[in-house]
Write a structure and sequence with these properties.
The complex is a heterodimer of chains A (about 425) and B (about 475). Chain A is of the alpha+beta class and about 425 residues long. Chain A has 11 helices and 20 strands. Chain A has 3 domains: about 130 residues, Sandwich (Immunoglobulin-like); about 180 residues, von Willebrand factor, type A domain (Rossmann fold); about 90 residues, Four Helix Bundle (Hemerythrin (Met), subunit A) (Up-down Bundle), CATH 1.20.120.1690. Chain A is about 35% helix and about 30% strand. The two termini of chain A are about 45 Å apart. Among the domains of chain B are: about 280 residues, Phosphatase 2c, domain 1 (4-Layer Sandwich); about 30 residues, no CATH class. The N terminus of chain B is likely disordered. Classes of the chains: A alpha+beta (about 425), B alpha+beta (about 475). Chains A and B meet through strand 17 and strand 18 of A and strand 2 of B. The structure holds zinc ion (ZN) (2 copies). Chain A: Pfam families: VWA_3, VWA_3_C.
């Protein structure tokens, strides 16, 4: 079968001053479809929070409508299942613990089953995740996608239960998390989405769930290349010290290292549609002589079968000429700023919540300056609901006296969403 | 139809690879030469003791010339007297007309050598001539055969005219076919990056190495300079199993930039070819050495361009050696050196002077302002007073012949090496830990690099007597 191919572009300043031993690069990867359309088989498991807190009619009704929309968006032949999540996981559809195949009849039956759901019980997310894992494990679908919807905290179990489940399930399926209202914890869902290479977002109004769910399923259906891995080769005395996805959102992949060998390790990036993502790679290298050039990292994009679909090289050349090593690559600078922006927001919000207002002002001010610099209008808009901006460029801000919890959580959730570099300076 | 996804499999381990890949990412084996199979990285490096003529498939790194008889008429010989150790014109007393910074470069042009062996030291009590502390005793030392060697007619073996072997013109450029020069790993990727240390193979003259068994040399750009302005050329007459003469030339281009490297390489190539040609023709070593230096001078002057500023005109140092079964003849201009090393040298015996027997002895005296001034009891900068090429006011080489009383190793080198020899015992200790000329030369270059590699470095090692692989 013909394969997609991946363009790998490396942005970096390859020139380092004498003695320098850190190489930074932004690796931009774009997936291109092959001539023939690829249709890897896909399965979706929807994990619906049905704990007692969902009892409020508006919430449960909205969740049911969202599930309907999701089911309607499934293409024929896709595997699917609906699981009710409480202090345990219960199959809603199909009744047996295996995936149904989407079709006219199963979609109808599934929606009827969703209509029967009632709320009650606690919240034990690790059980929901394990249920999804079991459903996928017993199947042969190439693309495995879960959607977790909750409105509350994971109260029925210790946090370690989730951590243990995630360690076990990491990279076996993707999970997008959605929190309704403001009673859930951003950190809890972020932990899940980061481990399972998905997204996390807040849904302010239950009614918004419908479009969001349909969009998520459609996006899942568009994924064409399952299990794409970034393989980073480094020289013997060198080591990859950080790997982050920085576009479309900040996602630390350092923990997603697998197949570590003496000089190469793989980083799972999940399934791809025909899209562009950027990664920040930092490598510690032994410093070489002035005038020497080193292949600091060889980046290969590898599919599940081990086929190399694209590759690029990160280089390092040592020089005594400040005109060379002094130049900052704009791409590297931009995404470094975006990572700092996300961190500043999260630290600032944490500080604000814990009452450390000086730190909160400082961090959120820094975030405002970075957002202004990178013309990140979305984030700037969200920031301005938490702080009064006096001078954006310098980051002079004042904390608002009262902040809507929804605004706080929305800024936190979306802090990781980056913007691409605008124009050229 | 999408050429970007044309993959193949490693014939060795089955790993997928690009068709245009040279080496497998997984096992490092060679791809695309399925008949040859993969080369296990653990295999020994390609260089072996086998002579170059025995491995034509590995690429010719040495050119052999079926010699036409050299036709240079004797009347073309320079008739000027050779300078001798007793020559009153030496050391040169005149102030230098051209101050050439040789160490370190990029800073003030006439500074003294920092911390090196020729860092200004208190002149010895002997005022005339004054010797740097690590250099040999005065050349009037009676143990040195000097002119005596000239009295013997050169021995001409029957096949001396038939051929000589010399390193390739332009330098023994390493092309990566024999692995990484930085870490010795065998496999490089398609762009020449080492699959172990990641460093790119040096390009052009950045790294040169050659091994003829009876003589071997290594030159390296160093770890600071942008290009290599050192050069070397060497070879032997007759058969490698029993060469009559082994000859070697090391040059250090003056200044920086491409011109300096070209001047040095052209001088070394022209000098070595002339030296070996003259020797194969039956000229004695001293005359051949002078002839060769004249040819090297011509080669450097051919690069001269009247449009160039004076400091950009090509110039180079030069040191040559002719080694036979019985004696060693060195000729030089500038501050590139020849050392004699023999087993028994002790690293803790710095400056062990005396006869070229046991120990380490520097056979040359730098032509530098410092040496000139030292003769007058003054401290001065390490600045060349003589060189080869444009504006040289003293192209007459200094020639010295010694007759060692035991087997040993002759080492020719540029200041890129000797600048790092705190005392000559270091040189002896390094040389004697090895067991071949090639290992000794690369060991010395590695020493210079590990000490900082502030300058280009070139080192040739010639075991004595000629034809020995190691003393
Ligand atoms: Zn292989
Ligand atoms: Zn290497």
């Amino acid at each position: 079968m013909e394969q997609p191919h991946f363009d790998v572009e490396v942005a970096q300043n390859r020139y380092l001053p004498r003695g320098a031993d850190t190489v930074d690069a932004i690796v931009t990867v774009t997936a291109h479809p092959p001539a023939q359309e690829l249709r890897p088989s896909v399965a979706v498991v929807i994990l619906l929070d049905c704990s007692a807190s969902m009892y409020r009619p508006s919430k449960l009704a909205a969740a049911k409508r969202a599930a309907h929309a999701a089911i309607d968006s499934l293409r024929d032949g896709a595997g699917f299942a609906i699981v009710a999540g409480t202090h345990e996981a219960t199959m809603i559809y199909p009744e047996s613990s295996e995936l149904a195949v989407a079709g006219e009849a199963t979609r109808y039956e599934a929606k009827r089953a969703v209509d029967e759901i009632s709320a009650g019980g606690g919240t034990a997310m690790s059980r929901w995740l394990r249920a999804a894992g079991a459903l996928f494990a017993g199947s042969r679908y190439e693309l495995r996608h879960a959607i977790l919807l909750t409105d509350g905290r994971n109260t029925s179990e210790q946090p370690e239960a989730v951590s243990a489940a995630l360690t076990e399930l990491q990279d076996t399926f993707r999970c997008d998390c959605r929190g309704v209202g403001t009673d859930w914890l951003v950190s809890e869902l972020r932990q899940i989405s980061e481990a399972l290479l998905g997204t996390v977002d807040i849904v302010a109004e239950p009614d918004e769930l419908v479009t969001d769910f349909a969009a998520m399923i459609e996006r899942a259906m568009r994924k064409s290349v399952p299990d794409v891995t970034l393989r980073l080769w480094t020289p013997k005395e060198a080591a990859v010290t950080a790997v982050r996805q920085v576009d479309p959102a900040v996602l630390d992949l350092t923990a997603h290292q697998e197949n570590a060998q003496a000089q190469a390790c793989d980083y799972a990036t999940g399934a791809w549609e025909f899209e562009t993502r950027a990664f920040q790679v930092r490598i510690a290298v032994p410093s070489a002589g002035v005038g020497d050039t080193m292949l600091a990292c060889r980046v290969s994009v590898v599919d599940a079968a081990g086929e190399v679909l694209g590759r690029g090289k990160v280089l390092a050349t040592w020089t005594d000429d400040p005109a060379y090593y002094g130049a900052l690559d704009p791409q590297v600078a931009h995404y470094t700023g975006q990572v700092e922006l996300a961190t500043a927001i999260q630290h600032g919000l944490d500080a604000r919540r814990s009452g450390d207002l000086d730190t909160a002002t400082h961090k959120l001010g820094r975030a405002v300056a970075l957002a202004a610099q990178s013309e990140h209008a979305e984030t700037m808009k969200l920031l301005s609901k938490v702080v009064d901006v006096e001078e954006a460029e310098t980051g002079r801000v004042r904390l608002k006296d009262t902040v809507d919890e929804l605004d706080h959580m929305t800024l936190d959730t979306r802090s990781v969403v980056t913007t691409r570099r605008h124009g050229r300076s | 139809m999408d050429s970007a996804v044309t993959t193949t499999r490693c014939p060795s381990c089955g790993e997928l690879a690009w068709l245009d890949d040279v080496f497998c990412e997984a096992c490092g084996g060679r791809i695309g030469e399925s008949t040859a199979g993969a080369v296990a990285p653990a295999e020994a490096p390609a260089e072996t003791a086998a002579g170059p003529s025995e491995q034509p498939g590995t690429g010719p790194r040495v050119e052999s010339f079926a010699a036409e008889p050299m036709t240079r008429a004797l009347t073309q010989w320079p008739v000027a007297d050779l300078p001798t150790r007793a020559d009153p014109a030496w050391p040169i007393a005149d102030p230098p007309t051209r101050a050439i910074p040789v160490w370190p470069v990029g800073e003030s042009p006439t500074r003294a050598v920092p911390g090196g062996p020729v860092a200004p030291a208190a002149p010895t009590a002997t005022a005339e001539p004054a010797w740097p502390v690590d250099e040999p005793a005065p050349q009037a030392d009676p143990v040195w055969p000097g002119e005596a060697a000239l009295d013997e007619a050169p021995v001409r073996s029957s096949d001396a005219r038939s051929r000589f072997t010399v390193t390739p013109v332009g330098g023994s450029v390493r092309d990566g076919r024999d692995g990484c020069v930085h870490c010795e790993y065998r496999d490089l990727d398609e762009d020449g990056y080492c699959l172990r240390c990641g460093l790119r193979r040096p390009t052009g003259r950045d790294r040169m190495a050659d091994d003829l068994g009876v003589v071997a040399g290594v030159s390296d750009r160093g770890r600071v300079r942008e290009s290599n302005a050192d050069a070397m050329a060497f070879g032997f007459t007759g058969d490698v199993a029993q060469p009559e003469y082994v000859a070697a030339v090391v040059c250090d281009g003056v200044g920086s930039g491409a011109k300096a490297g070209q001047a040095a390489q052209d001088a070394a190539d022209a000098g070595a070819a002339e030296l070996l040609g003259c020797l194969a023709d039956g000229l004695d070593a001293r005359k051949a050495s002078t002839m060769a230096m004249a040819a090297a001078g011509d080669a450097v002057n051919a690069l001269a361009d009247p449009r160039l500023a004076e400091e950009d005109t090509p110039a180079t140092t030069y040191v040559s050696a002719v080694v036979t079964a019985a004696e060693v003849t060195v000729a030089w201009l500038g501050d590139s050196r020849a050392y004699w090393v023999a087993p028994g040298a002790r690293a803790d015996a710095p400056g062990a002077h005396g006869a070229p027997g046991e120990g380490v002895t520097c056979l040359t005296i730098d032509h530098t302002v410092r040496n000139t001034y030292l003769a007058d009891g003054m401290r001065a900068a390490h600045t060349l007073t003589r060189w080869l090429g444009a504006d040289s006011d003293g192209t007459d080489p200094q020639v010295s012949t010694v007759r060692p009383d035991r087997a040993g190793v002759l080492v020719l080198c540029t200041d890129g090496l000797w600048g790092y020899l705190d005392d000559p015992g270091t040189l002896a200790a390094e040389v004697l830990t090895h067991a071949s000329a090639a290992d000794a030369a690369s060991g010395l270059v590695r020493h210079a690099l590990s000490e900082g590699g502030r300058d280009n470095v070139a080192v040739i090692a010639v075991p004595f007597p000629a034809g020995r692989r190691w003393p």
